[in-house]
Write a structure and sequence with these properties.
There is one protein chain. This protein is an alpha+beta fold and 344 residues long. It has 16 helices and seven strands. The protein is globular. The two termini are 34 Å apart.
């Protein structure tokens, strides 16, 4: 899993100035020193990065400033992931590369979920403790739209935009993407027709891709020295949101076939179900100790179809019911906190 650091690039700040924003004011709001903009190597935590994007929206006074930031970038300003995507053969291949190499620039994953007649694209921040600012999500959506327009040379509208919360100027949002905007969704997502995945890119460059990808893959290895089991755990943890992620879905996120994933896990002397159980147990214990969620809510969160199934499995894991474990953990936590600590 990538470290919680996000580079603060000077060209990005310059773009904010070109859009008419007071960059020093933007930086001061989240408590970032304006002098940092002149340094060559500056990085932020996810929390600081979210605060920066919230400040961008506040200073601009434009609820849809993210669309301008993400949709007006030039191709020479693309990050490595977007650059590799732009020179792919099709939109589908571009999305796969964008998802694979995004970790080189920030601890964010792009989830691409295929359905019978559509593909759903959403963004997920690995170290986030709060919802991503709307301007940041909007910028991501506009950047996907820009990639598709730049690659195909055509304006291809999404089927729809799904938003978790009602935004200001929803009609402007719909006009920008030329599609329906649905609010009250589970999460923010950009939805395209499956046929769009086959759209050919006029920017395709096989020679450039052949020269570019080996270096990007080496960079990925340097920031992701995890075992396959650790990678599967990370994907499962991120996907665990009220459903039992299938091995097929996890394999897609790792850019592997289900058969290859199963074979490599067997070679590592483990299996998908065992890793899933470990992730569920870890999340269950964290939710029991850190939240007030009831066991039935946790069971749903972990993808159990019946609460009784969760209780049986939890007892098998730890030899007691979820409520008994929570009570025991609460007592032990109180005891730990009551022990005097040395004064430094």
């Amino acid at each position: 899993m990538a470290a919680d650091r996000i580079p603060l690039f000077g060209p990005g700040l310059t773009r904010l100035a070109l859009l008419g924003l007071d960059v020093d004011q933007v930086l001061r709001q989240p408590g970032i020193s304006p002098t940092l903009r002149h340094q060559t190597k500056v990085s932020l935590t996810t929390s600081q990065y979210f605060a920066l994007w919230a400040a961008i929206e506040a200073v601009s006074g434009d609820a849809l400033i993210g669309l301008r930031i993400g949709g007006e970038a030039r191709s020479d300003q693309f990050d490595p992931a977007s650059f590799a995507a732009l020179h792919s053969q099709t939109f589908g291949e571009a999305l796969s590369r964008l998802a694979r190499y995004k970790r080189l620039t920030c601890p964010e994953t792009i989830r691409i979920e295929p359905y019978v007649d559509s593909v759903r694209i959403s963004f997920h921040w690995l170290w986030a403790h709060s919802e991503a600012p709307h301007a940041l999500t909007d910028s991501g959506f506009a950047n996907i739209d820009l990639l598709l327009r730049s690659g195909t040379g055509k304006s291809i509208a999404p089927l729809r935009i799904e938003l978790a919360y009602i935004r200001k100027d929803v009609q402007r949002y719909a006009d920008y993407f030329d599609c329906e905007v649905c609010v009250g969704a589970e999460l923010d997502a950009l939805v395209y027709s499956n046929s769009t995945l086959n759209e050919r890119f006029i920017t395709s460059n096989a020679n450039l891709i052949a020269a570019l990808l080996p270096g990007l893959d080496l960079q990925l290895e340097s920031i992701s020295p995890q075992s396959l089991e650790q990678q599967v755990k990370a994907v499962l943890t991120e996907m665990m949101r009220g459903e039992r992620p299938s091995m097929e879905a996890v394999a897609r996120q790792l850019l592997l076939s289900p058969r290859t994933l199963q074979r490599r896990l067997t070679e590592a002397k483990t299996n998908y179900q065992s890793i899933l159980d470990n992730v569920r147990q870890d999340i269950a214990c964290k939710l029991l100790s850190r939240t007030s969620m009831e066991p039935n809510e946790i069971a749903f969160y972990l993808g159990f179809e019946e609460v009784n199934s969760f209780h049986r499995v939890f007892c098998k894991w730890l030899g007691m019911t979820p409520k008994q474990w929570r009570t025991q953990e609460s007592i032990q936590s109180s005891t730990r906190n009551s022990v005097p600590r040395p004064v430094c």
